[in-house]
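YM 10:42: Oxidoreductase sequence, as discussed on the call
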Amino acid sequence: MPHCSVDSGCGDQNGAVRTRALFGALAAAAAIAASQLAAALLNLRESPVLALAQTVIKLTPGSTAESVISVVGKNDKPLAVISVLAGMVLLGAVLGRWWLQRRPLALAGAVVATGLVVAAVLSRPYGSTGGVVASLLGGATLVAVLHLLVREEPEAEASAGVSRRTVLRMAGAVAVGTALAGTGGEVLAARHRRRRALEKVRAALKLPTRRVAAPAGTDLRLQGQPPWLTPNRDFYRIDTALTPPLIEPEDWSLRIHGMVERELTITYQDLLDRGLKDAWITLCCVSNQVGGDLISTTLFSGVPMKTLLDEVGVKPGADALLSTSDDGWTCGTPLSALTDGRDALLAVAMNGEALPVEHGFPVRQVVPGLYGYVSATKWVREWEVTRFADFEAYWTQRGWGAKGPVKTQSRIDLPLRDVAAGTVPIAGVAWAQHTGIAKVEVRVDDGEWEQADLAAVPNDDTWVQWKLEWDALPGDHVIEVRATDKSGYTQTAERSDVLPDGATGHDRVAVSVS
Ligand SMILES: Nc1nc2c(c(=O)[nH]1)N[C@H]1C(S)=C(S)[C@@H](COP(=O)(O)O)O[C@H]1N2
Ligand SMILES: [Mo]
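YM 10:58: structure's back
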């Protein structure tokens, strides 16, 4: 204790006051970081700090604002944010100093400050419950960290209190947590901003497509059955992307190379210039279990993949298209399926609307008759014309089949669970994309197979709804379905796993009739 004397005051005591102020400032920083992270997690358009800065700008008298702007120019917003942050840290330091001797005052200060932030948040056009939650979380963090770090100095090493060393460790942990939360919040918030900006661009795109209704007669419109045409928001989603790539159409291009006569790179506008074709297609995932819902149907609009393959000129000997997405996912598709005249598309729209970001915006592939993992590359950026013998794509490396033709399948959607005795519709869907469904049969309690009625389809690339009226008697029953496709193949009852190339077996559901 070098600077301590009885009458001039104690260096240690000054040091202690400084430490408390410092911990108070740290508490304020932690509070700011916590509220920023909460704001990002809640996807708020404006964090409490920003709301406060905007309020400060609004409340600054016009003359002052003008002189400030004359000095800092267009940097008045960053200046307001920095002032708010500095003010908060300063307030934290003051509260830290007061925390031990003037606790009620310090607490009141924390409450009033939090209240002012909440008021600022609520006065803003984007004011929301989320903003209030983030503000309150900041206030709670402020008080919690003050409570944790600002303490009486231990009298001696042996005292029952927490040692200085422990307090320093806790302060270190709070500082690290603050840095992590702050950085994480900023990264997340930046991503949310990019996503919102992209959604604006997407909404403003003028594509020569329009929304249409399901073709007449395709949807039986039975209560409780999924619609024939899947709304975009309900379309199943499968990919390896933790967050989808955010690609502006202006920044998109597709590079085509490999076993081709002429390499080609095309832009989004180049693609649109080749003219769009519309095609009703049912897309399904190889991981769809028997009876599962990883399958959906919509009207895709895009450029036939064959158009581009013809332009580049496929060299003899090639049998595969290796496509790569913006996030590095790869997919190998048989060239035969892309050139045999089916509606294999480089799609830009689903159901008349630009592709949703999660479904591959701005451009994805879709190929009728093949599972998604070997055909439906989203956010596609690169094509290499090649040979299956020369590469393994993402899922093939992980044990899935190199080629994934869709297996003929059927699913029971109705009745849902328990039904009352009487005439009850048994209904569902069946699919064998690019082959077509010829017949669907149903049996109850392992009785005779009975043929169901099929609804209309626009082509053989979509699923078909089917229905059979059932005279349901009280008791427990098992309903089973099987489909026969237009090649004459009837679904095997033998159950096989989804790995390596799609599930087989009949969908069977238990219902209880009362
Ligand atoms: N870039 C990319 N594209 C991808 C995938 C992926 O993981 N990454 N998954 C594929 C799989 S396995 C399926 S089933 C379909 C699903 O498309 P959807 O999410 O639009 O329904 O996308 C395919 N395209
Ligand atoms: Mo899939």
